[in-house]
């Protein structure tokens, strides 16, 4: 499934105007060729974005639920649920920018690992995983 549909393929869809499946397959092969799989497997960007969305939803629930409980007690549950959903999705949309930047950086590295504009962080991580035998 990852081979035929992945978020890293979206970078090539936008840059090279490829179809989604073709771009996903091409991108996944590039990532495997430069041995980025261990780094991608340990990438916490998606989890971080999810937890930021949950925190945003929780804050919105606290604020809206408290205010509604004081003003219109009978609507507090519904408003709290709506506030959570709105807060979660607003934060998640805001965090998608960071997640797409990380995906674009991985794709840029896999297209040209020797590019002097890219810092050596990914190369250091790959070498570290190779030393550990991961």
TrEMBL record:
InterPro entries: Choline_transptr-like
Any GO MF annotation of the entry: transmembrane transporter activity
Membrane-spanning parts: 48-69, 81-108
GO CC list: plasma membrane
Recorded topology in the membrane: Multi-pass membrane protein
Keyword terms, alphabetized: Membrane, Transmembrane, Transmembrane helix
Pfam families registered for this protein in UniProt: Choline_transpo
Subcellular location: Cell membrane; Membrane
Known role: Choline transporter.
Family as reported in the entry's similarity comment: Belongs to the CTL (choline transporter-like) family.
Protein's recorded name: Choline transporter-like protein
Species assigned in the record: Salix koriyanagi
């Amino acid at each position: 499934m990852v081979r035929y549909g992945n978020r890293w393929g979206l970078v090539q869809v936008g840059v090279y105007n490829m179809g989604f499946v073709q771009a996903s397959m091409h991108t996944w092969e590039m990532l495997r060729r430069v041995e980025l799989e261990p780094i991608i497997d340990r990438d916490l960007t998606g989890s971080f974005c999810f937890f930021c969305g949950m925190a945003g939803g929780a804050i919105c629930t606290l604020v809206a639920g408290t205010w509604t409980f004081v003003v219109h007690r009978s609507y507090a549950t519904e408003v709290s649920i709506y506030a959570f959903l709105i807060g979660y999705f607003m934060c998640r949309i805001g965090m998608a920018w960071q997640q797409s930047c990380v995906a674009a950086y991985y794709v840029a590295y896999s297209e040209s690992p020797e590019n002097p504009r890219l810092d050596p962080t990914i190369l250091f991580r790959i070498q570290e995983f190779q030393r550990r035998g991961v």
